[in-house]
Structures are given as C-alpha cells and as structure tokens.
TrEMBL record:
Signal peptide: none annotated. It comes from the Eukaryota. InterPro entries: WD-EF-hand_domain, WD40/YVTN_repeat-like_dom_sf, WD40_repeat_dom_sf. It comes from Oriolus oriolus. The gene is Wdr64_0. Keywords: Repeat. This is WDR64 protein.
Length: 342
C-alpha cells in the first residue's frame, strides 16, 4: 500500500512536470515565454524523471517521451510510455518486454570471418534454404558462400573479379548449382563446388547496357536448366536461360587452368523488353504468384508484376505508378500482399 501511495505521488509530480513543460513549449512557440532558471530542458527533465521513478525507466524511453513533447506539445504522450509501454486501440497496455525488444540477442549469430576489405560494400545477400547456406556478393568482386555445416562454423570461398566493373547483385541457380552475379557489363557464373580451386566458372560478355539487378526464376521439373532475370539502367528486363550444355558448347578456352572462361553474349538467345523509363532497381521472381516483379525510379512505370512470357511478346503488362518511383518491394504469402518502398 505504501509503495502504491509513493508511486501515485511520483506519478502526480511527473504529470505536473509534463504540464509545466507543455505550457513552456506552447508559450515559447507563440513568443510569450521568457527563458529563466526554471526552464525545463532535457537534462532537467531526465534528472527529475530518474529521481521520481529510479531504474524503472530507461534512457531511450525518456528521450522518446521528451522528443514527442517538444515536437508536438498539443498531443502529449500517455504516461505509460515513459516505462516503454504503449496503449493499443483495443488491447490496453502491451508487455514492456515485447514492445521494446526486436531481436533477442540469444537468437543472433555473428559471422566473424571478414569477407570484404575496407572501402568495399556488400551488394547482395541470398539465402539458399535447401542447401543450408548463404551467398553474398561485394561491390568490388568478392563472392562468398557461407555453408552452415555446424552451429558456429562457416566455410567460405572467394572470387576476386578482375574486371573494373562493380558487382551490382547476385543470386543462386538451384538446378545448375552455380552462383550468378552481374556487373555493369558482364554476367558471372561461379562454380563454388571445387575446393581445390576457387576460380572456376564463366563470364558472359559484353552486355550493352549496365546491369543493375539479377534474380533466378525458380520452377520445378528442370534439373539441368535455370532461367535468370536481369534489369539494366535503360529500363530493360532480360530473360536468360542457361543449360548444362551451354557450359560445354559455348565456352572459349581459358588462358590458364582454373580461370573463368568467357562466353559471347551474342551466342545466347536473350529476350529483353523495355518495361521502365529509368533504372530497374530490383527484380524478383515470386514463385507463389508465378509472376516476376520489377521496380524502377520511373514515376510512370514504377512497378510491374506479370508473367515472364510478357518479356517475349508485346502484350500489355500489369503495372502501377508511384511518384518518384519504387526502390524496393517484397511479397508476403501469408497476407497475400506486396509492399513497396519509394
């Protein structure tokens, strides 16, 4: 009972503190308030709140509460927010532990291997659930496979791309078992499997426009074939189908053993269609919908969602416009919605 009385007193003092602060902010914005020693700045608000409630309040909640009052004195926050609790529309007060926690630290796993050097960037991360590994590609040409063989063990392989062009995206070919990456002027197909040599694979070039993104078309029933979607800086979307025979028939000899072999892009039937009037920022095949999706910074043809057959004909495509375009999107199968970010 005594603790309850003490808390009610502390809460009353806190609410008076907030009222006084709101009055000062309101008068200050209208030019009627003159600053004096009694002004409640952040330091004074923080110290008073800590004195009233002690360790029950966290620094980040005090900061958030103070910012809300400063930014909008007319809509003062509810007092439970100072403890990290937020009132819902129907379910009342939510649990502080669930509200403030996003990722539990025990569920995190850190990869300690440094796969990129300074001034390099990771440009693509692809998870391959069936094979229990993750593929990454860096801007300066490091392709890496993290294979989860044990709980805390990751094996990794590198390909240092000798071209001056930067890597712009990557994906995995599930049937041919190759890593695919695109640069500004080439398509890289990396065979990560041979452990005696890391530089095994193929480079398809030249590509006329700058490639910006890549995605694999995941379909069942083609054990020796994979289809690749790519987008470029001129608004074109490409469709490239690779078979195991291509690696034998269309390759040129490498200068040395264990080197990437070159393929002429002209030797492939590579349908393409201009779907956007600006950069194709992201492309993805959504297997649940049996459709591909592409987005662009184009304000008119911002997002396209249609069958891959549309890349080989001139029939209209399903699209919508967003001012200043779409930079990212994702599909949620459970909710059956596509979310875009501009």
């Amino acid at each position: 009972a005594l603790e309850l009385i003490d808390f009610k007193n502390a809460l009353e003092q806190f609410q008076n503190l907030v009222k006084k602060m709101i009055i000062q902010k309101t008068k200050g914005s209208s030019g009627l308030y003159t600053k004096d020693d009694d002004e409640i700045d952040y330091d004074k608000f923080y110290t008073t709140t800590q004195t009233l409630f002690g360790p029950a309040v966290k620094d980040q909640n005090i900061q958030a509460f103070f910012r809300k009052i400063v930014s909008n004195p007319d809509e003062k926050p509810e007092w439970p927010e100072i403890f990290g609790c937020f009132l819902g529309e129907s379910d009342g007060m939510s649990s502080p532990s669930k509200e403030t926690m996003v990722f539990l630290e025990s569920e995190k796993q850190q990869i300690t291997h440094s796969v990129v050097k300074r001034k390099d960037l990771i440009k693509g991360i692809v998870k391959v659930p069936l094979l229990h590994f993750t593929v990454t590609a860096s801007q300066r040409g490091v392709l890496t496979v993290f294979s989860k063989q044990r709980k805390s063990f990751f094996s990794y392989f590198f390909y240092f791309h000798q071209d001056t062009a930067w890597i712009t995206g990557c994906d995995f070919l599930p049937n041919l078992k190759y890593v695919v990456a695109v640069t500004e002027s080439t398509v890289i197909l990396w065979d990560y499997k041979p452990k005696e040599s890391q530089n095994n694979g193929f480079v398809i070039k030249p590509m006329k426009n700058c490639l910006l993104c890549v995605s694999t078309v995941t379909t069942a029933g083609h054990l020796a074939k994979d289809t690749i979607l790519m987008g470029d800086d001129k608004g074109y979307v490409y469709l490239l189908t690779m078979t195991s025979d291509d690696f034998i028939m269309k390759q040129s000899k490498a200068e040395k053993e264990s080197q990437f072999r070159f393929m002429d892009s002209e030797s492939f039937n590579m349908p393409k269609r201009k779907l956007h009037d600006d950069w194709v920022v992201k492309i993805k095949y959504i297997s649940a919908l049996k459709r591909f999706a592409s987005c662009s910074t184009d304000s008119v043809n911002s997002f396209v969602l249609d069958d891959i057959n549309r890349l080989e004909d001139n029939l209209p495509v399903k699209e919508f416009s967003v001012p200043k375009g779409v930079n990212a999107f994702t599909y949620c199968g459970k909710a059956k919605i596509i979310v875009t970010g501009g």
